[in-house]
């Protein structure tokens, strides 16, 4: 053990900056193999401790509890190691590849998660040769991408029940949304293969259509922006189901004083699902929306409800789409149906609701111009975009 730790100490002391690209890649491949071998040995050792109930020595009832409490592993990771150790006793070829470092712990878990005691019993009843599958899985795991092993294991599951009725895949669909104190949300969804394909196709179409030069967003950020844009498109289409006589829409409530005050006003506005946003964000949403005036009494009871006032008329929007055709922010060009009609001078500050005072901007760039960026359309008719420091964003390489 001490020799192994000394060897790891020596690796950690290496100067990586002195290595060539080829040497760094070779080192990476070696370390992956080393991690695989160490993971295999951990799995084998934990399996031995599990079978002998070694955790009782420390007063715990299971090795899962010991791994969580003593090794500080997550519950999922502790379960994975135990599951893999139990499965590998039945798959010697897979175990050998794991021990040799050619197969990863995640690949072993693909098999262990799908082929448990019940599945092995079913295979024995039907005369299915597990050894043949073991050889195939070991070869696929060592030579092919991770997803190929997933497909190979699925072939085994199909062999167990080749003629059984296919279940309704939609029964497993789930979408859970959790709202946080600041109004932001996180979520988790589980979809069947067909439902997942539809979601991926829709999001990918928006991601690939919006790839501006110099985009520094991560892929996760691009996906999130695409999801919001997808919802934006549907809300704007007017084709969603009517909710109690009202088309679904984003609702913002804000006091008039906060709306006209140029200050940020954090937490000044309330949204329909309970979130609070700043006055600045409310002004951004008010650029292209309907405004309803409600006069409140001192006891909080509405005294008067004025009629809706459409800030941007349908006719003005059509004129803006015909003139601008797309988002006018330099380098963007997002299609018109992704865009809001932005007031160059906000109507709250006397700006006219007119074509001359309007610009098509996609959601991301509409946000940008409410946070320091600026778009202008001088007499030559060519849109110009300026950074918060006043410098112009120019497209193309300098001469």
TrEMBL record:
UniProt keyword list: Endonuclease, Hydrolase, Nuclease
UniProt superkingdom: Bacteria
Signal peptide (UniProt feature, chain positions): none
GO molecular function term, any single one: endonuclease activity
InterPro entries for this protein: DUF222, HNH, HNH_nuc
One Pfam family of this chain: HNH
Domain annotation HNH nuclease: ranges: 315-367
Presence of the UniProt keyword Nuclease in the record: yes
Family, as annotated: Belongs to the Rv1128c/1148c/1588c/1702c/1945/3466 family.
UniProt name for this protein: Endonuclease
């Amino acid at each position: 053990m001490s020799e192994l730790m000394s060897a790891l100490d020596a690796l950690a002391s290496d100067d990586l900056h002195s290595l060539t690209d080829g040497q760094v890649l070779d080192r990476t491949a070696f370390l992956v193999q080393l991690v695989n071998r160490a993971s295999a040995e951990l799995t084998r050792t934990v399996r031995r401790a599990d079978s002998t109930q070694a955790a009782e020595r420390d007063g715990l009832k299971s090795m899962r509890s010991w791994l969580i409490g003593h090794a500080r592993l997550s519950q999922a990771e502790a379960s994975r190691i135990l599951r893999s150790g139990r499965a590998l006793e039945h798959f010697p070829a897979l175990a050998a590849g794991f021990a040799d470092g050619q197969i990863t712990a995640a690949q072993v878990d693909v098999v262990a998660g799908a082929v448990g005691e019940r599945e092995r019993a079913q295979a024995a009843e039907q005369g299915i040769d597990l050894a043949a599958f073991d050889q195939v899985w070991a070869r696929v795991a060592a030579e092919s991408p991770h997803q190929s092993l997933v497909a190979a294991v699925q072939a085994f599951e199909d062999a167990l029940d080749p003629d059984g009725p296919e279940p309704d895949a939609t029964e497993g669909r789930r979408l859970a949304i959790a709202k946080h104190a600041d109004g932001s949300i996180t979520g988790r969804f589980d979809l069947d293969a067909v439902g997942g394909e539809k979601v991926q196709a829709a999001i990918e179409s928006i991601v690939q259509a919006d790839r501006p030069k110099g985009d520094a967003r991560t892929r996760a950020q691009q996906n999130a922006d695409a999801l919001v844009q997808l919802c934006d498109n549907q809300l704007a289409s007017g084709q969603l189901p009517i909710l109690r006589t009202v088309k679904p829409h984003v609702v913002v409530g804000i006091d008039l004083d906060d709306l006209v005050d140029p200050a940020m006003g954090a937490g000044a506005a309330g949204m329909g699902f309970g979130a609070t946003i700043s006055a600045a964000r409310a002004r951004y949403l008010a650029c292209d929306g309907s405004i309803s005036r409600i006069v409140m009494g001192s006891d909080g009871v509405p005294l008067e409800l004025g009629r809706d006032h459409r800030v941007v008329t349908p006719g003005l929007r059509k004129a803006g789409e015909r003139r601008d055709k797309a988002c006018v922010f330099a380098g963007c060009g997002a299609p018109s149906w992704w865009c809001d009609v932005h007031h160059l001078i906000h109507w709250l500050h006397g700006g006219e609701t007119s074509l001359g005072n309007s610009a098509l901007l996609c959601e991301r760039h509409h946000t940008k111009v409410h946070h320091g960026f600026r778009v202008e359309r001088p007499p030559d008719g060519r849109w110009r975009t300026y950074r918060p420091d006043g410098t112009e964003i120019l497209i193309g390489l300098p001469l």
